[in-house]
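Risk register update: the risk of archive-format incompatibility is retired. Evidence:
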Amino acid sequence: TGDVNIALLSGIIYAFSIFAISDTFSLNSRQIGSLFFIIKFIPDKFFIIEFPRFF
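Archived output:
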């Protein structure tokens, strides 16, 4: 279903963001700002449902 695809995509984005944050010292402020801009738009319900499943 569409909801499953969206949830999966949000989980993938979160996984990518975790890798990026762990390497924060090699990022400049513009890249960090873009990263959190993406995180901010992930629906809360998908974060709550999918985060434990991916980690």
